[in-house]
Amino acid sequence: MTSQPSRPIGVTILAALAFIAGLVDVYHALQYLGILPRFLGPIAFFGIDILGAILYIVLAAIWIWVGRMLWQLNPQGWTFMVALAGINIIFAVLAVIGASSFGAQLPAILINAAVLIYAYSSGVKKAFGVP
After folding, report:
1. Torsion 55-44-115-17 (CA) sign
2. pLDDT in tens, 81-94
3. 6 pLDDT exceeds 80?
4. What ranges do the domains of the chain cover?
5. Which terminus of the chain has a lower count of CB atoms within 10 Å, N or C?
6. Angle 21-23-25 from CA coordinates, rounded to 5°
7. SS3 content of the chain, % helix, strand, coil (to 5)
């Protein structure tokens, strides 16, 4: 019988951040669709809000998948997480350029920045075998 390696607390926190990032993306998608209120400022994506909603739903689905990979200590999860956090920050900046307020995109930027910073901590990198 094979035993799964124990999950360090840092990896657990990172997986939780991945799931939270997915929830923030779902929230933004629902804001683009006009279902949820826009508390932090206007949200628009170059006049094509449905496109912004679709892109955020896709990003949310990928975050959930990455969170699951992290939870299972899959080494590829770390790589996908770093790439996805970078893509999410770029997408949030594009949304600001496309007429969203900075305040409305701030939660996504902060969570993804936290993911990137924490991903490069020595304990997390060691858990995934990243030099």
Report:
1. negative
2. 999 999 989 988 98
3. no
4. 9-127
5. N
6. 70
7. 70, 0, 30
